[in-house]
Amino acid sequence: MHPEAARTNGREDAELVRLAQEGDAEAFAKLVARYENSIFRLARNITQNAEDAEDVLQETFLKAYEHLGEFRGDSKFYTWLVRIAVNQALMKLRRRKSDRSVSLDETFDTGEETLVREIAVWAEDPEQLYSQEELRRILASAIESLPPIFRTVFALRDIEELSTEETAQILNLSVPAVKSRLLRARLRLREHLTRYFKRKGDDVFAYL
Amino acid sequence: MSLLTCEDFLKELNDYLDDATSPGLRQEIEAHLAQCPNCWVICDTTRKTLRIYKGTELYPLPPQVHQRLMEALRRKITERNGRH
To answer: Which CATH number fits the domain that encloses residue B31?
Structure first.
């Protein structure tokens, strides 16, 4: 969601939440309609699985409905919702990968990792090189190739357009931790997409 | 002459792309970009990466998924009202 929309939605959200807390089901339905697209997309991006994403979507709104009385309005309703969704989505991932725990806090080597491998000029409008269908497949496979922590941060910051501070709060990470994960996510996606989007004829490799 | 190294530039890339750098730093970054083709390419391709993701809806909510969500909520609401 765009920050602009968040600001103009703010007061109305609070009003709808208050009505829903008083038992107005229609007010809650309005909140669902407002955020279901975002929550589904987020769940799909984190879990990388359509079935899990649908489960997360339902669990998020059912939990939100059930615990609406506990929402105190000290954060935005949308942020509260996203927090529930992210927790549900990460739980799905952990269950699927029972052999390997998924942690947002996993340490990784920041010093040795090569952030940039391939440097090639892209076409001016690389998205025009492919059909919509192909483009979606390329973009989705790039996100899928990211470790869960990176794609979660990328989805929150660059797709759902939450602020660094909100993202840090939702994930219980520090602001610098969010920033460093976001940088790595962006650079890895860039790297992955370069093979599809580089200008034909150019084949310049460089190492930093 | 720019004093930023390529490594410094990479550290600032996020804030630069998010328009969150101070005007002074911004100038230093732009001076570096003007003389470092590699960093220019990294900056340009990362900017395009973000533009393309923001401009493409990868996972539109399927109508049947919306339907099933509404049904699940209706069941929940009925169940809750029944309890009261």
So the answer is: 1.10.10
Q: Please report residues of B whose CB lies closer than 8 A to that of A206.
A: 38
**Range 22-61 of B in CB contact (< 8 A) with A:** 38, 41-42, 44-46, 48-50, 52-61
Residue B67 CB neighbours (<10 A): 10
The mean pLDDT values, 10 residues at a time, for chain B of 84 residues are 84 95 95 95 97 96 98 91 69
Structure ipTM over 0.95, yes or no: no
A48-57 pLDDT tens trace: 999 999 999 9
What's the pLDDT band for A95 if we cut at 50, 70, 90?
confident
Of A117 and B68, which is predicted with more confidence? B68
* Distance (Å, whole) CA A31 – CA A129: 38
Q: How far is A168 from chain B (nearest CA, A)?
A: 15
Higher pLDDT, A164 or A2: A164
Domains of chain A: 3-96 (1.10.1740.10), 106-208 (1.10.10.10)
- Longest C-alpha distance within chain A, in Å? 64
Best of B9, B16, B43, B61 to substitute, by most chain A Cβ atoms within 10 angstroms, is B61
Give start and end residues of each alpha helix (H) in A22-122: 25-47, 50-66, 77-96
Domain span holding position B58: 6-83
Task: Fill in the DSSP letter of residue B36.
Answer: -
The C-alpha atoms of residue B37 and residue B45 are separated, in whole angstroms, by 12
Alpha helices in chain A (DSSP H): 3-21, 25-47, 50-66, 77-96, 132-144, 148-154, 164-171, 175-197
- Comparing CB atoms, the residue among A122, A139, A143 nearest residue B45 is A122
Identify the closest residue of chain A to B54 by CA–CA distance.
A159
